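Response to reviewer comment R2.3. The reviewers asked that we include at least one raw input/output pair. We reproduce the pair for Carbohydrate porin here without editing.
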Amino acid sequence: MLALLSGCCHVPAAAQELVEVRGESGTNSPYMLRDWGGERTRLANQGVAFSLLYVDDTLSNTRRDVANWSRVRGTLDIDLGKAGVVRGLKFHITAMWQAGSNLGAHLGAIANPSSLASINLFRLDSWWFEKELSRQKLFIRAGQFSGLDSYGVQPYGDSFINEPLGYAMGNLIPATYEPFSPAGTPAFEVRYVPAKRVYVKSAIFSGNRDPLHDDETGTHFKFKDAPVIAAEVGYLVKPGLLPAGDGYAGLYTFGATINTGPFANIGSGRQARTNYLLYFTVNQQVYSSRAHANRRMDATATFDWTPEDVSKTFSQLAVGLRYHGLLRHRDHDTVSVGFVHSRISGVLNRSLSRAGLSPFGAEKLLELNYALRLNRWLTFQPVFQYYFDTGADPQRRNNAVAGFRTMFVL
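Raw output as returned:
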């Protein structure tokens, strides 16, 4: 439950939650390099857990343009309470290397076909200390971390390849400059859990508007530009987002981000202060087989909105379904279908019309993929995507994208 509340969900794009250590070997081990003769289990029992995650997306469109994006993330978590140092204190640090070509930029798509693609880098993404207070009801976190890993992140992100469903809504960044992974910035968060199924949290981030160039290595702890404030309230239908006994698990969240810095009006260009974005998410299990514990269906929906006078893409809707164990004897595989609708600002369109230019429409993205879990540390995920009115431009052609994701944990 606490991992969920802190936003460290099982999302490949963020990839900050470690797999469980059980001291198993072969294909049953969560690590390709196994348990090192029990050493990993021994360290985990002492509060030290680490992993190295590799994710690779290879995608191609109908013009045979091929884009490959690779990412390697190393993560270390130390439970200082479990280690007998300081009760209720945890430390987390993660760094990333990534490189490749961005098919979304080539297509001019609003919803990027890959949740990984950004820029080539080798960077310290985040590090933080978190202290538990008041008998697991109050948590304070301080250090360097990204907002999108906790505020607006997709809990079912490991089941999708595209950015809005696989990581977080893309317009969260231009609307308020909320820090994203791997561009963590100095931050402070307070999280309160008044009841087992309810949490409230809020954080303040350094709102660096060009963090990957302001702090290329992630080691400068740089404060720049107006701060970003994020807040979220969540309700858990059944804590843990995992099937257990009767009833279906679910998570409902409502959140907002705000930046008090200057923003230009998208139509007139005039400067004004402050912009904000609101989002609402639903992640709900809708079916579970009593005969097969891993066979279940989950539904997800996310909607966000920001004022039309600042952001080109002022609203996005992302919905999806995933089914675990569709095929016989493949209980750990997942088939997923998703849809993303990106809407363009009416203020921008009216400005274009007055200038005699064609207005934008809306971009629609449909995705179908199948995650083939070959073992506990290796997943192969073929995907097909189809864009209607790519970039929300009715004059541009539709685009089909196909490819696959490969992910393994060392």
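The two ends are 25 Å apart (CA to CA). DSSP finds seven helices and 16 strands in the chain. Further pairs are available on request from the corresponding author.
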